[in-house]
Amino acid sequence: MKFTTEQRLDDGVVEREFTLGEIPGILWTPGSSSAPVPLILLGQPGGLDRMYPRLAARARHSVADGFAAATIELPGSGDRPRLAAVEEARTDMRRALEAHQPVGDGIVDRLVLPLVEQAVPEWQAALAALLSLPGIRGPVGYAGGIISIGIRLAVVEPRISAALLFAGSFVPRTMFEEARQMTIPLLVLLQWDDEGNDRRLALDLFDAFGSREKTLHANMGGHTGVPRFEGDAGNQFFSRHLK
User: Fold this and answer.
1) How do strand 136-144 and strand 37-43 relate by DSSP bridges?
2) pLDDT of residue 35
3) What is residue 57's DSSP assignment?
4) Per-residue pLDDT at 222 exceeds 90
5) What is the DSSP string of 193-235?
6) What are the b/e assignments for 24-63, b being 16+ CB within 10 Å?
7) Rounded distance, CA 217 to CA 50, Å?
8) What's the pLDDT at 126?
9) Could you tell me if 52 and 77 are in contact, meaning their C-beta atoms sit under 8 angstroms apart?
10) For 159-196, what is the HEC assignment?
11) What is the CA radius of gyration of the chain?
């Protein structure tokens, strides 16, 4: 891990950009802390530059509540090399949506599964590097991003102790079996009127999660209308399980 920039934001949060090999990322930490703090990994759907305002707001809120927060660029996004198969699937998805046709399972598999296969090992490598830094400790939480990536990561990575997942992205049917293997505490946010989300599929997925502690927060509104109070609810959830 190589840090490339560092700045102290107006609330005292230290923001550092880094690269992990060819993967860019950002780390936010308290400006002053007498002891190491637990870490929350911030998933996102790709394009750090585009997502930066929302990511930074989420991160600064988490740091204010006693956490460190970090994110990395999604494969095929930002300045990273494009994934040809994923780009073709994305084109097919857009055609289906524009024609008001259902997005078939084959398109969803080609769109999501390659991202899961590449992103999860990258998150694991980033996690190992982040936990080696002074001022950061486990246990670790994972929040947001493409829900299938969060599912796989929660199943295979023992250092993650709790997950907050956002319903609203396409989910391959094969991920339901992995969802049944989840055991960590889970909070799922669902926007009830999300125009791009299959609400029935999201509810079926929640039912499939194997975690003994799982909570669903459903709010009215579209994809980007998650209420601000859910940020507080998420930090309270992580405080119970990471501190």
Assistant:
1) parallel
2) 87
3) H
4) no
5) T-TTS-HHHHHHHHHH---SSEEEEEESS-TT---THHHHHHH
6) bbbbbbbeeeeeebbbbbbbbbbebeebeeebbebbbbbb
7) 26
8) 98
9) no
10) CEEEEEEECCCCCCCCHHHHHCCCCCCEEEEEECCCCC
11) 17
What three-state secondary structure class fits 69?
strand
Return the sign of the alpha-carbon dihedral for residues 163, 192, 216, 59.
positive
Q: What is the number of residues in the chain?
A: 243
Identify residue 195 by its one-letter amino acid code.
Answer: E
* 37: three-class secondary structure by DSSP: strand
Tokens for 69, please give them: 């927060």
Give, in order, the Cα–Cα distances in Å from 112 to each of 56, 64, 83, 149, 202: 25, 33, 11, 9, 16
- pTM for this entry: 0.94
Q: DSSP characters for 102-143?
A: ---HHHHHHHHHHHHHHHHHHHHHHHHHHHTSTTEEEEEEEE
Q: Which residues of 179-205 are buried (b: 16+ CB within 10 A; e: fewer)?
A: beebebbbbbbbbeebeebbeeebeeb
Q: How far apart are the first and last CA of the chain?
A: 26
Residues 155-209 pLDDT 10s: 999 999 999 999 988 999 999 999 999 999 999 999 998 877 788 999 999 999 9
Residue 154 structure tokens: 């929660």
* d(C-alpha 62, C-alpha 189), whole Å: 17
Find, among 75, 68, 63, 13, the residue nearest to 41 by Cα. 68
